[in-house]
Amino acid sequence: MNAISVERRTALRGFALTAALLSGLALAGCQTAPTGEFNNIDKAQGSTENISSLSAVIQRNPQDPEAYNVRGSAYGRGGQYQAALKDFDTAIQLNPNFYQAYSNRALIQRFLGNQEAALADYNRSIQINSNYDAAYIGRGNLYRKAGRTTEAFNDFQKAIQLDTTDARAYHNRGLIYQSQGQHKFAIEDFSTAISLAPDAAEPYNGRGLSYLAMNDEDNAFSDFNMAIKLDGKNAEAWANQALIYERRGDKVRASKSYREAVHLDPTYQPAKDGLSRTSSATAS
């Protein structure tokens, strides 16, 4: 099984793009990954009905490590992290070389804040199978959140060299390029991520920020609009759309978009600042 896709947006805010001043306005950029990791959680995979059917499979064959790994993934998608850990533990006990289960358990450990345990599991997964792209991507995100940018970049690079079709590798490498001001490379990576995961909002939002940094306002605006279309609850995309309106002098629309961003995330400072700047336009 592939690494479970259970990253929540709130768990991904640790890699915010530093605000850049463009035309006197702060670039509203808080990048989320997509941590797979930027796809929406498939709640159906963790539904009571699905868990019950998977449990029935385990009852019929309690010595099958794959069955525990699958159910653990379903528990993870449903947010039942302790139950997921227990199943991954069992899968590994039954098959100590089950590298997918190590990688899956590492992701759950990350959610629970057990970073050292997560790193140990990713390392073990890679030790067993040095060509397992999901483990490199997961470990890269762990390094990235810890500020170990070079190691994170190397892991994403390794996954890409392995010809991964996982959009996370390109998206996350793009975030690193972006944070270093290498926007042309970032745009290339975000574009590849979009081609691999066209329904994910985050690569569009990320690419829009790099377009904006290069003063390509039209393409930036198009990407922010697409991010909103794909995920209407993406506060960062709403704030970035508002920034374009503000740069164009349309404070009424800017204020409405900033207001929506604040509604979605009352703690998002760029949206709060933007709303403060433009709210007078809609006062009447």
From TrEMBL:
Entry-linked Pfam families: TPR_1, TPR_11, TPR_2, TPR_8
Record's protein name: Uncharacterized protein
GO process terms (BP): receptor-mediated virion attachment to host cell
Mapped TPR repeat ranges: 65-98, 133-166, 167-200, 201-234, 235-268
UniProt KW keywords: Repeat, Signal, TPR repeat
PROSITE patterns: TPR, TPR_REGION
Region forming the signal peptide: 1-28
